[in-house]
Each structure stands twice: as structure tokens, then as C-alpha cells.
Task: structure prediction
Amino acid sequence: MTFIITNDDGINAPGIKALWEALNTANLPLSSFNKSIIVAPQEQLSGCGHQVTTNGPIKLQCLSDVKYAIAGTPADCTRIAITHISKDVKWVLSGINSGGNMGVDVYISGTVAAVREAAFHRIPGIALSQYRQYNKTVDWPRVTRLARIVITDLLKRPIESGVFWNVNFPYLEPEAPDPKIIFCKASTQPLPVAYHKEGKDFYYAGKYEERDYASGTDIDVCFAGNIAITKIHL
Result:
């Protein structure tokens, strides 16, 4: 059974290293986990959504027998991974993204698109993201430990065909206790739309942390300091 690991922050991002470690140290039955392979974009492609490459070459660089760099998008990575790198892919895990992917973010996020592409092919997936508060530093060792707990839990749960999990870790101050894991619904309220103009050019100025959200949604849960997990159906 092969697990594919990908992201949209690029193959050298700290989050994908954290995800690799979390998966490979998760408390899973040996019968359910044989091999994990990284198939990730060469470059940072945050916010690329479900873009795919269909009108040009996609270069693949084999860095080792378990690590491949793709000159394409996260969705491209999933497509190539399940069709040409391994014929036995049972799960696709994407992340850990440096930044939240809650609510309607899932339509913009390359991180989420990678597991959505897997779900199209009836392969389950987990997208994992770390909400960043302003420019504060991410404690990746702690995120890795929390991700290990979440992955161990989710991979043991039954999941329907055409469904995937979306996980968002909260920003935590160093002294904060470990967060709760809360299964919740996704927000459907829009991101803040604001721009400032310089000459004829527009610059996005919406503030992520000021977005609207309903009580009990993934944004509410994550902003309150807990791990938000939503189940997303195609």
C-alpha cells in the first residue's frame, strides 16, 4: 500500500518534511502502510487551486526512489503519482501547508486540490494546513507531533468513496496547551475582498483574520485554538 505525499509550497518546504515525519511515525498497523513517496512541485505554488497542465511538458526529476520533483501543480503531482509512479496508491496526503485552508479556501488552495484530484479517482486523501497568525514563527516540531496524532486517527476511520479530509491546525503560543480535535462543518462565507490602488494597478489588501464565519464552523474552531477537521464530499 503506497501513500503519496505532496503540497503546494514546494518540495523543499518545511511543512512537507513535517508531514513525511508525521506519517512515517504514525501508529498504524504494518499491514496498512508499506511505503510513502513524496511527489511535490519543484516551486512554491500557493493559491494555484486546481490548475492542471495540459498544453505543455511536465518535467519530472527523480531525486531518490521515494522523492520526485514535478515541474507542475499539486494536481499534476497527484495525476502523475497515481498513473506513472505507483499503481498501488491508497491515500494521498497534502501539506502541511504554511497557512490556513479553511472554508472557501478549499477552492483556491493547491494543497486541497491535490487531495481533491485523488478523490476524483476514488482515492481518499487528507489535506493538512497550519494557520499562521500574522508573521509569527511556526513550531514545526509541535505541528509534526499533532499531525501524527491526527493522521493516526483519520487513517483508522472508514471513509466513503469520493470524500477527503481537510485539517487545519491553529496557531498556538509556546505556553498554550495542546488543542482539542474537533470535527466540524466548513464555513461558506467569502474571504474579505479589499484592494488598494496605485496608479492603474490593484493590490489585494483583504485581511484573512478578519473574515466572517458562523459559530461552529472550521474557521471558528481553528481561530479559537483547536484543530478543525472537516469531511469534504465531491
About this structure: The two ends are 24 Å apart (CA to CA). The mean pLDDT is 95.
